[in-house]
Amino acid sequence: RRVPRKRGSGSAISVTVSEGGSYARVMERVRAAIDLRDVGIASSMKLRKSAAGGLLLEVTGPGSKLAADRLADAMRDVIFATDEDERGVTIGRPKRRVELRISGFDESIDATVVRSEVALEGLCSSAHIRVGDVEFSRRGLGSVWVQCPADASLALAKAGHLKLGWAKAKVELLKGASLRCYRCLAVGHVQQRCPSVMDRSRCCFNYGRHRHVWRSCKDRPRCPVCEDRGLPSAHRAGAAGLCRPV
User: Fold this and answer.
1) CA-CA 20 to 30 A from 55: which of 175, 189, 216, 228?
2) How far apart are CA 22 and CA 41, in angstroms?
3) What pLDDT, on the 0 to 100 scale, is given for residue 2?
């Protein structure tokens, strides 16, 4: 019997080095300059590769968030405090994000208002919130896609509603999205690890052809990935449950 895999409870630090750079060099420099005990980390950390090929350092245990923040700051100081060219190195603090659908508000509400209210009610920074284009139904009611840190998303979804203007807008938790490659439009991997020789990065997501973007597309959906594989293709590229991972 397969045991469900538990999500880690630690705090992560991401290290990304641009093409031509050296992860070994970066890690050697920070290890030589930083004592983990000085930033509140008593033992070693878990290391793993991200889906995009970067390096993730996971700090676990009590106080892991503060310790990870301190370590990330210390690493940035080491990497960027010299005259050496390290512009291709990024030290980040990735946050697990969860997607929401917020609906049932009037035309006076725009993405700026949504972001502000989500930050206020979700108790998170607006810098960590992504808001899609607001769309309106034939009845004139708006809906919008939102992505924000997991704690904020789950709190809003539990409440079930969000005050937007005078409206009590509905908040729904969306199912986690599969990995999608924005180069070949297939699912199951990301563009940094794309195995395909086909570059569809300039193609419409809806129809799979050049010349226009999906927001202005009026053609019927057609998935070029499934079509090339001889599979049913009357759907948008990457459609959940219809496209097989590559």
Assistant:
1) 175
2) 25
3) 42
